[in-house]
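queue> pop job 88
queue> type: inverse folding (structure -> sequence)
queue> payload:
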């Protein structure tokens, strides 16, 4: 079935290019192409239902049918669109729960992202005017341009609605819709306020700049897995991030580390087993 997908989708893309270029496609070819897509979707649905009856979860069943990179990209796009909804509704993801402190980090990139949106809107209007005499090309390019505007807005909305989260036992470090790393407090060896504007790539280091800046550095005693949009997670022992109020984040994190250390010291010792009888 996967080979059928690899054959049908490029054929559909080729037909789309021909339509945009003004090539006349026989009605029978178009009907055959649409029938192939419908049959492929029906086969995928039947395979999904069969996997579900075998006891697989929804995610596992979809993972068997869809390549992992496609799933990651689709999930990223869905999180961007969900970020737009949350942004409009002023509902940050994960914030507002008892024992959770949120630290926003999108303020310093707002001007840049709004500038990108303005450029995309100007490009949309210009292309709409230039392609007015080619209806099919105009419609395709208009859809792509509008989606580009939504995509750029979604990038900023995802950052604005997915702040860093500090709980009693971990710091959840996030950026846009593609980075979400849970750092347990017991693994944090040092935390400091450190403004950096240049970041060279290095093994074991996760840089999450906002507006080309990081302001908080975490040194870990053990590596934690850092996800990547494409490819497996990589272990990191140093995390550099940014927060709108970096000093407040460092202060709160140090207080949480002190409380965690106090709990560890005052925890009751385990009761030793009784000595074995001779």
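queue> result:
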């Amino acid at each position: 079935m996967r080979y059928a997908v690899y054959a049908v989708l490029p054929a559909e893309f080729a037909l789309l290019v021909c339509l945009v270029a003004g090539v006349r496609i026989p009605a029978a070819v178009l009907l055959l192409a649409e029938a192939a897509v419908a049959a492929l979707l029906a086969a995928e649905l039947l395979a999904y239902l069969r996997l579900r009856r075998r006891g697989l979860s929804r995610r596992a069943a979809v993972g068997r049918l869809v390549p992992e990179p496609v799933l990651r990209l689709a999930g990223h796009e869905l999180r961007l669109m969900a970020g737009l909804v949350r942004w409009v509704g002023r509902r940050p993801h994960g914030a507002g729960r008892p024992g959770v402190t949120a630290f926003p980090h999108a303020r310093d990139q707002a001007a840049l992202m709004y500038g990108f949106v303005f450029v995309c809107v100007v490009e949309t209007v210009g292309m709409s005017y230039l392609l007015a005499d080619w209806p099919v090309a105009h419609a395709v390019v208009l859809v792509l341009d509008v989606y580009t505007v939504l995509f750029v807005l979604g990038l900023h909305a995802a950052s604005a609605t997915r702040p860093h989260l500090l709980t009693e036992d971990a710091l959840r470090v996030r950026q846009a819709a593609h980075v979400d790393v849970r750092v347990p407090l017991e693994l944090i060896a040092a935390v400091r306020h450190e403004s950096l504007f240049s970041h060279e790539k290095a093994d074991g280091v996760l840089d999450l700049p906002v507006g080309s800046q990081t302001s908080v550095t975490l040194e870990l005693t053990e590596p934690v897995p850092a996800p990547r949009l494409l490819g497996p997670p990589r272990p990191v022992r140093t995390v550099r991030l940014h927060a709108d109020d970096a000093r407040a984040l460092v202060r709160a994190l140090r207080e949480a580390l002190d409380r965690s250390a106090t709990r560890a010291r005052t925890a009751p010792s385990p009761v030793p087993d009784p000595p074995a009888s001779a």
